[in-house]
Each structure stands twice: as structure tokens, then as C-alpha cells.
Write a structure and sequence with these properties.
Length: about 250
């Protein structure tokens, strides 16, 4: 297949339409339905993001058989996705996907309890990683670790792509998504625990956490950019006990 040529003169007019017609940003309490996004508008609302990033994936991919790698990656991605999307509707879960060796989800989060829900998903994923590694050990497959990054902020979402092409997606403009991705890269290495929360996410999550000992689960840290974050290794004890007892029904 060979491209016949890019009609840059004609496409210049289309680019000018895009630049001149994007003129309405709606600040809302909660993101609307996907159908309400057009190529002319955008919506700004509170967003919660979670990224789950495999550690040492290069080593995993280069030092193991392809079939074994496929088993590990599928075991990792399938259940992380299940946990991230369970009991949500499409107006809450705005986007879920895989970027390389990272699984991520972006949620509309107008309430503190929405961030608590995202934190709960992180705790399930953190505990699931222990279950997965036990199952991998039983099959003589390599164990894996992951960093889980959580962040929240007001975020602008705009529909991007080419009109009438069927190729489009929401682009997230703001710190929540970027920070969650960066914090997932911090977790589970250099003495940092697996779950890492941005300062803003932590403040709102801890405010509605009902466990009186919750603050002891977290360690405050400051990164080189002077950003404060909190890290911990929170798990669900019933789930963890079931894993330790042999995972029998």
C-alpha cells in the first residue's frame, strides 16, 4: 500500500476549522455522557486516575520464553481490568486501557467517596498480585511486581481525532492522569511501597476512610520536584488469608 499524497492545501482549511471552532469549555460537577462530547466543546471536572505499571518488564520480556511471557501478561492484565471496571457504568468509568506494560483507568470523581472507591480498587489489585504470583509459582512461571499510582485533580477532557473517520478518543488535559502515570513508575522500587497516592488524592481519600488506623498505613514522602505523595502496601486481609491458606474453596 502506498499513500497517494497528502493534500496539504485542502487539509489546511480543515486545520483552521479545528483551531477556530474549539471555543467552548464547560466546567461541570461531573463529566457527561460520551455522546455529549463534540469536536467543538470540552468539559472540565474532577477526575480520578489509576495506573498499574509492571516493574522490570524489559527483563521479563527478554529473559523468558514467549509463551511464558504471554501467560504472565494475560494473567496480569485480565484481572486488573476486571477489578478496575467491576460495578461501574460508562459515565463513571470514562476510559480504561493498556499502554505498553501498564493498565490504567480514568474515572469521573466528583465526590470524595469516588476517590475512596478508586483506592479500594488499588487495594484489591495489590492483593491480587500476591494471588497471581502464587499461581505463577505453581506453574514455574516468573513472578512480577507492579507500581500502582493514584491521582486526582480537575481535568479538561476534549474529544480528539478526525471528524467522520470513526477514529477518536478523549484527551485528558491536567495533572491527574499524568501524575497517576508518574507515581505508578515510583511504586515497588527504591524502598517505595506498591501503592502511591498524590497528595490531593490522599487528602480526599483519608477524609472518608472509616478505619481508625488508616493513617498508619501510609508513609509521607517528597519527590525531587517537591511534590508530596503517600505510599503504602494496603491489602484486604480476608483475601490475603485465603491466599495464604491455599486458595481452596
Amino acid at each position: 500500500m502506498k499513500i497517494s499524497g497528502y493534500d496539504y492545501k485542502e487539509r489546511k482549511k480543515k486545520v483552521e476549522e479545528i483551531l477556530d471552532n474549539t471555543n467552548k469549555i464547560n466546567e461541570v460537577d461531573k463529566f457527561p455522557r460520551d455522546e455529549d462530547f463534540t469536536y467543538e466543546n470540552g468539559y472540565k471536572a474532577w477526575t480520578g486516575a489509576i495506573f498499574v505499571d509492571l516493574r522490570d518488564s524489559t527483563k521479563l520480556f527478554t529473559e523468558n520464553e514467549e509463551v511464558d511471557i504471554a501467560k504472565v501478561v494475560r494473567g496480569f492484565t485480565s484481572e486488573v481490568i476486571e477489578i478496575l471496571k467491576k460495578d461501574t457504568d460508562k459515565n463513571e468509568l470514562k476510559e480504561i486501557g493498556i499502554r505498553g506494560d501498564c493498565v490504567y483507568a480514568i474515572y469521573s470523581a466528583p465526590l470524595q467517596t469516588d476517590l475512596y472507591d478508586i483506592a479500594t480498587r488499588a487495594f484489591y489489585i495489590n492483593t491480587y498480585m500476591k494471588m497471581l504470583n502464587k499461581l505463577l509459582e505453581e506453574r514455574s512461571l516468573p513472578n512480577i511486581t507492579a507500581g500502582i499510582g493514584l491521582a486526582a485533580d480537575k481535568t479538561l477532557a476534549v474529544k480528539s481525532g478526525r471528524k467522520s473517520s470513526g477514529i477518536n478518543n478523549l484527551v485528558w488535559i491536567g495533572e491527574a492522569v499524568t501524575k497517576a502515570a508518574n507515581l505508578s513508575d515510583v511504586g515497588s522500587k527504591n524502598g517505595i511501597s506498591s501503592i502511591v497516592m498524590s497528595n490531593l488524592f490522599y487528602i480526599n481519600y483519608i477524609d472518608v476512610e472509616t478505619n481508625p488506623n488508616a493513617e498508619t498505613w501510609w508513609t509521607k514522602n517528597i519527590c525531587s520536584q517537591n511534590d508530596t505523595y503517600y505510599h503504602g502496601n494496603v491489602i484486604f486481609t480476608d483475601f490475603d488469608d485465603w491466599i495464604d491458606s491455599g486458595m481452596k474453596d
